[in-house]
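Review this chain:
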Amino acid sequence: MGVPVSNVSYKQIHEEFMTGLNGTSLVEVSVLTLIPVGSTLVRDLFCLFVSDFTQPWLIMLNMFIIIAPLLLSITILNFTDFTILVSLFTIATGMFALIVTRHIQSKNTHRYWSLVKQFLNLEMGNRRPFLSYLRGQTLLGTALTILAVDFTVFPRRFAKTEIYGTGLMDTGVGLFVVLNAVVSPEARGKTSCKSPVLAMVQAVKSSMPLVVIGALRLLAVKKTDYQEHVSEYGVHWNFFLTLAAVKVISTVILSVFPVQLSGILSIMIAAGYQYSLTSLTTYILHGADGRGTRVGLLDANREGLFSCIGYLAIYFAGVEIGRYIFRKRHSVREWVLVLSVFITMSLLLWMALGIVSYAVQPISRRLANAPYFLWMIALSFQLLAVNLAGDITVTCIQSLHPREGCENKKFADDLSSTCLLSAMNYNGLLYFLAANLLTGLVNMSIQTLYIPPSLAVTIISAYISILSGLIMLLYRRKISTRFW
């Protein structure tokens, strides 16, 4: 367990362990974020061969397939993350090829083009599991990393960067903002309030749980002398308050401006904020006196307050993406067109990111600058594209390998009933809150920095198993904790 130290000295050691980090490459972060996507596709294809979804072992296997690859890739197998990703998609490709080959042999035909046309004309409806999958994958990745980062088995290159750089954990808040925007009432065309005042009241009401949790987290950290990384958001600000502030401000703005202008607003805010950073960067990073001191509320929370502008730009981009996703579509052919748009946008944004990060400023989550904005939107399009491709694949394969006595809708319902990602979406805020509480409990119970790798993985596995079991139990009993 290591050499015991005083609480004060251990807190300082822990905080130093989290500071001064520079992250890893964009490629490695992309690989890590794609691993849960590969796991989900393998799970979906495997479930096509399952006839009885009521078996407890299936739920356990479901959870294992989704969780284990990511858990191992960010801990003891972190240098084989690319191999894990390739293995997952190789397994999925093999299952796809097996079913297609069997179908062609049974039909005694080699007319592949007719099979492609059959796929394109399949009914896919308006269900968007690829979107709920991405939300669940983001929740899972966040839950795993917020505890794993406190152990030495978690590579420092995956942790949040200090000023500039790209770590796996730098994607968390950005993806949450995008995904919240994609499913927002504005994106789904379900807004009915025209008055900015009423819009603000409704937004504050819907964001109140985030405000309360943010305030409670602040009190808990200060009262328990819990380790904190002040340069991340500031002395009093935190992740929950950022989400709440962005939601309220965006709702008020979209009650004045047409939602059709979301994309334009996104670009204007990102560009305007980046221009202001030419003079603001020094202040945000080093404070009013240039020495990093924090006097007054604004100076004490400058990172959290100013980064909200960048996250607001990301949110409006997410609204624009959501407006496109929630258009009515029916056939696979129509969703293939959506897939091509996602891929094209992702490629264009990756190229723009390369230019802007070289010519203007490196990526900085702490500043939420324009390069970070481009990174989050490019990564979101990439993850949406791969998840949608998996969704289309499962739809096509299901038409060739129907389960006995089971229609497409029945299969989708059965799959959802055992799906850990669906359970996370059902009680998303509770899942994230429980993850934060358990993380705090673990850190107050043991000195995580002195835990050997094998024991650390065991603790993280137990933690994520408890979280998953709790959220799945509530989901299976259709108990929702959303009351606002």
Residues 1-5 have pLDDT under 50 and may be disordered.
